[in-house]
Design a protein that fits this description.
single chain, 4 helices
C-alpha cells in the first residue's frame, strides 16, 4: 500500500504538504538539507536514504540496491 501511494505521489512529503496549503518553514529535506523533500527524494536520492538501502542490501546479503525512481523499489 505504501509503495502504491509513493508511486502515485501521495506520500505527505514537505513539497506535497505545501501544495495542500499546509504551512512548513521550508520544503528542504530535513535529513540532508540538499534538495526539496519530495517522495522521489525521500525514497531514492537523499544521501542518507541511499546509505540505508546500502545497509539493507548488506544485511540481507543481496546485491546492492540502486534506485533511480520509486518504481525500482517495487
Amino acid at each position: 500500500m505504501f509503495m502504491w501511494r509513493a508511486e502515485m505521489k501521495k506520500i505527505p512529503s514537505l513539497v506535497a504538504l505545501s501544495r495542500r496549503n499546509v504551512h512548513a518553514e521550508s520544503v528542504i529535506c530535513k535529513l540532508c538539507g540538499e534538495s526539496d523533500e519530495t517522495t522521489y527524494h525521500l525514497l531514492t536520492s537523499c544521501y542518507y536514504v541511499v546509505r540505508i538501502w546500502h545497509w539493507i542490501s548488506n544485511w540481507c546479503r543481496i546485491s546492492p540496491i540502486y534506485t533511480f525512481e520509486v518504481r525500482d523499489l517495487c
